[in-house]
Amino acid sequence: MKNMSVYDSMLPVFRGMYKADPFEILDRVFDNEYFPAVAGRSPVVDVREKDGKYLIEAELPGVSEKDLKLELKDGLLSLSTERKEEKDDKAEDGAWIRRERRTSYFDRSFELPEDADGDKIEAKFKDGLLTIELPKKPESSPRLVPVKAA
Q1: CATH 2.60.40.790 in the chain, residues?
Q2: pLDDT digits (tens, 9 = 90+) for 43-82
Q3: What own/partner pairs with CB < 8 Å and gap ≥ 24 does 132-140 have?
Q4: Domain at 40-88+101-137, CATH class
């Protein structure tokens, strides 16, 4: 049987992908084309209420504060960043043997509660933890409206 191919008949996923280098097979299987979720990541986020403000804490390991983008528009707070893959085929100290870190990005949005004061928002970044403080608007106390005789 001249045309028999074990990979083609048994594992159609690998059709045309078989290479002698097993690392190349793994790279192609986990390539962004096959697993798009690998390209985007979402930070772990905790949201809590404390001392008259909302606190949003996002874990962002390996991200620099200059790469962070925090935008408030129409009551929607958006947090995003992007890390570009180095296009250099050689490492600083020699040739790459394996590279798993790739271009990555994330974009996460939060709808602000009505009592949040978006004009006084503050953000701090230290040791891979972004802390966003969002003060609450002062509560308006009920006001008595005098009624005049007409």
Answers
A1: 40-88+101-137
A2: 889 999 998 899 999 998 888 888 899 999 998 999 998 8
A3: 132/55, 132/56, 132/57, 132/58, 132/70, 132/77, 132/79, 133/53, 133/54, 133/55, 134/53, 134/54, 134/55, 134/56, 134/77, 135/52, 135/53, 136/52, 136/53, 136/54, 139/115
A4: mainly beta
